[in-house]
Design brief:
Length: about 210
């Protein structure tokens, strides 16, 4: 196969991939502003200069487009995750600070998560699975700290994991409405009420 033949094959594919990315980016903005139910396919098509029929050539349904947007949200969020070697407390606080630089992503998450509580919402399973995964990950970290004697008396790792997620989401929602809210500081304060400083292990139970 010649180089020219390869280029001809790649040309339409690259154009199609670019168009799909453009549609997802437009849907991202529309859903963040109006929600999944409020944002129309026509609104999205208008942003990328397509007819609604042409848009459906790339995404057969609005539900398919929502899945693509949620996957894109995960890609952007994952690209900002903190590296290994940082303490659990510091990882969460630093991620909260990073999130301040991606307000559109946080707004999209808040809007779609709220809508997921309604009946027959196509993204409901995504958010339920996400919360279950985070609860398990945070609880594992907290149980490990408990084994090291670094959890304060009365802290239950499983309940604390759910509490941290609820606190973080709630603070971010307030921050979207009032940027003076310091999400990272609030999260750090809560973690300090749960976790003893390194080197300050609790005395073993008798």
């Amino acid at each position: 196969m010649t180089d020219d033949g390869t280029a001809r094959r790649r040309g339409p594919y690259a154009k199609s991939a670019y168009r799909r990315r453009s549609i997802v980016a437009a849907a991202f903005e529309v859903f963040a502003a109006s929600g999944y139910r409020g944002g129309s396919l026509q609104d999205i098509a208008d942003r990328v200069g397509l007819s609604q029929t042409a848009l459906l050539h790339y995404f057969p349904s609005k539900r398919d487009l929502l899945v693509a947007v949620l996957n894109r949200r995960d890609e952007v969020a994952d690209s900002s995750l903190i590296g290994d070697g940082m303490q659990f407390r510091d990882q969460l606080v630093e991620q909260a600070r990073i999130n301040e630089g991606i307000p559109g992503l946080i707004e999209l998450y808040a809007v779609l998560c709220g809508e997921s509580l309604t009946d027959d919402y196509p993204g409901r399973e995504y958010f339920a699975a996400r919360f279950a995964r985070l609860r398990a990950e945070y609880a594992d970290e907290l149980w490990e700290l408990e084994a090291q004697g670094r959890l304060r008396d009365g802290v239950n790792p499983d309940r604390a994991a759910a509490t941290l997620i609820g606190l973080w989401d709630g603070l971010q929602t307030q921050w979207l409405l009032d940027p003076s809210i310091d999400v990272a500081a609030g999260l750090r304060d809560a973690l300090d009420l749960m976790i003893l400083p390194e080197g300050d292990q609790a005395a073993p139970a008798l």
